[in-house]
Amino acid sequence: SVIAYIGLGSNLDNPTQQVESALQELTALTHSTLLAHSSLYKTRPVGPQNQPYYINAVASLATTLDAEELLDQLQAIEQTHRRVRGTERWGPRTLDLDLLIFGEATIDTPRLRVPHPEMADRAFVLLPLSEIAPIGMDIPGMGRLQDMLRIQSGEGVERLD
Ligand SMILES: CC1(C)Nc2nc(N)[nH]c(=O)c2N=C1O
């Protein structure tokens, strides 16, 4: 099996509830085991500011699914949260499940880019990720987590106790 890291985000319809229940659903994925999840964070929107704050988290999963199969499962969970696709690209959403890292794989297909190309400059991903990943972890084709964190300010990312 490989270890996959999943980014969770929501800023519509009770985001804390959306993320909490998505974490529950991740424990029920076939051929997968939820290993850990971060705290929840309240984060300022990246992109258009005229939208609500997000709730973000990161989870790690041991899985024997391949990346595309896992993506299918994640998109199915998004659907159960009434994720209305085709809405504004950077607009608000009930639930985003992003496949951030899939073992040592680097994938670049029309459906899937892994590791997630924007994660290196997103504190709303790096801070929760650093709670559950080894700080020296190498992110395939991108560099070390600790080096990415160093150039991020925690501004606009608040851990919820
Ligand atoms: C619109 C965009 C880029 N901004 C975000 N901003 C924050 N803070 N959290 C997100 O999960 C998030 N997701 C996105 O897709």
What would you say this structure looks like, in words?
The chain is α+β, with helices and mostly antiparallel strands. It has helices at 15-26, 67-80, 123-132, 145-150, and strands at residues 2-10, 32-37, 41-43, 54-63, 96-102, 107-108, 113-114, 138-139, 143-144, 157-159. The longest helix is centred in the middle third of the chain and has 14 residues, at 67-80. The termini are far apart. The relative contact order is 0.22. 7,8-dihydro-7,7-dimethyl-6-hydroxypterin binds next to β4.
Summarize the structure.
With 161 residues, the chain is α+β, with helices and mostly antiparallel strands.
Q: Which spans have pLDDT < 50 for at least 5 consecutive residues?
A: none
Bound molecules: 7,8-dihydro-7,7-dimethyl-6-hydroxypterin
Rg: 15 Å
Averaged pLDDT: 95
Q: Which word captures the global form?
A: globular
Count of DSSP-assigned helices: 4
State the separation between the terminal residues, measured CA to CA.
32 Å
Q: What can be said about the biggest beta sheet?
A: 6 strands, antiparallel
Number of strands: 10
Can you write the helix and strand succession as a string? EHEEEHEEEHEEHE
Derived structural class: alpha+beta
Give the helix level as a range of percent.
25-40%
What fraction of residues sit in β-strands? 25-35%
